[in-house]
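User: Before I run my own analysis I want an independent prediction to cross-check against. Here's the chain; please return only the structure tokens and, at the end, one sentence I can use as a sanity check.
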Amino acid sequence: MRHGADVKAEAVRYFEMGFGDKAVGRLLGIYHTTVKRWLYTYRALGKEALFVTRRRTYSHDLKVEAAKAVVEGRMTKL
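Assistant: Structure tokens:
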């Protein structure tokens, strides 16, 4: 389940008050493991990083070419 920016903003508010992942999870009614990932991101990269939702997408052809390159030894997998 994806949570909206408003829920994440509320979590940030609690983080800034010193609450941990389990307490924030209880307060917001979401799994503490989700909040734990948010807290890690918040501490490592700042609150702005929680609101970045853009992910890279790659075409099927590019994925096939990358797989071929790995199999043929021209590229290492990461």
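Sanity check: The two ends are 27 Å apart (CA to CA).
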